[in-house]
Amino acid sequence: MNTSMIRYILGHVLKIEAILLLLPCLTAVYYQEIQGVYYLLTAAICIVLGFLMTLRKPKNNVFYLKEGCVATALSWIFLSVFGCLPFVFSREIPSFTNALFETISGFTTTGASILEDVEALSHCALLWRSFTHWIGGMGVLVFLLAIVPMSGGSNINLMRAESPGPSVGKLVPKMVSSARILYGIYFGLTLLEIVLLILGGMPLFDSVTTSFGTAGTGGFGIKADSFAGYAVHLQWIVTIFMILFGVNFNAYYFILFHQFRKAFGMEEVRAYFVIIIASVAFITYNIRSMCTGVFDALTQAAFQVGSIITTTGFATANFDLWPKASQAILVMLMFCGACAGSTGGGIKVSRLLIAGKTVVKELRSYIHPKIITKVKMDGKPIEHEVVRATNVYVMTFVVIFTASVFALSFEGHDLVTNFTAVAATINNIGPGLSLVGPAANFNFFSPISKYVLMFDMLAGRLELFPLLILFHPTIWRELFAHKAQERRAARERRKERKQR
């Protein structure tokens, strides 16, 4: 295993985090808040460690998917551990476990919070919470690839390990250019939302933090009522952008280069919008008697559906009080998620399409045993490897989900709370139902349960396997074997120097 390259990547990740921490520092200066000192201190720690870890460049800078998964998982753990330090240092979230939960929830774009009074936080803390969504939405390693290109196949292995969806490919021949295009689209959409919200009458600070949360499909709000207190036209702007950030970014690439037929021909994107329209129509009809009119029902339904299917987690209504049929729709949307290649979480629409088409294919084989058919997406046959990976992903998801619900059950909370708490974290959504509804938080869970939910958040954001591979015995055997080999080589070099 190329541990030197993993160490080198982690060092660069810490350097990037140090630079990103300067934004809350500047916010603290503007609002004259003393808490900014702790963000500066954390940035200094990150830059020193990052410099030490990248001081010696690896001789071999090529590595494969295995190393890519390990580097990705460790990068997100490092980001979260160091990213939570300002909360602990400033005592705004004095418990390390709670601070880590909040930070992992931010970077994984989950939006599940332990805070009971979010408005008591300083402006720099509120900005950092929302900014972690924006960082985690597209992925810090995608950003790293855009500025520190790797050699050989390392680029695609890093991108595959971090990007959401069944498969990742190049938009253009060079992976560096693909990463830059993705971040360019991401930044452009974020900036457009900020401008529209400001033009709509929202204060600058609120516009920036809201756009960070929307772009990353995270959902940390800066108000106690999430988004319910804002004007209806602002709610519609956020609804539209939540849905836009749930679209596969390949579609935006095609539109950007005037390949409209490819963009609008993407089967996953079409299915995504059909699901949204059908869900909004059903819930609007179902909750119309609870609202002041049809438009109010449509507004609430569209916002909540957009928030849940894209796994953003903003809320304008306490849907825990909605009819059971509407709640059932929202729970199903939690698992559905957005498109592959978007900033949204969940199982992904493409996987559900592949799984559904696989079932149909199997049924046809029972009826016509001699027929030979292939599962297709966008008119093209899907490789067996992709179908197999989809099936394995779904089975692994079910196992982790079941184990997590069982682990939480020892605390004695009701099944709806435990079930939706796990669903909300592993699908990176935020709010669930019952005790973890949109008007509640996750602070009542024990520290052990919080670590279970933190694992679920990281596993969900990293598509399960990059995190699970850290627990594989082979990885640790190779790691220790590599370390032993390095020690032997160091001893031999010392012997040679003594002989001279």
From TrEMBL:
Entry annotated with the keyword Transmembrane: yes
Membrane topology: Multi-pass membrane protein
TM annotation in the entry: 12-31, 37-56, 68-89, 131-150, 181-205, 236-257, 269-287, 328-347, 392-410
Family according to the record: Belongs to the TrkH potassium transport family.
A UniProt-annotated Pfam family: TrkH
Compartments where found: Cell inner membrane
Protein name (Swiss-Prot/TrEMBL): TrkH family potassium uptake protein
Organism: Butyricicoccus intestinisimiae
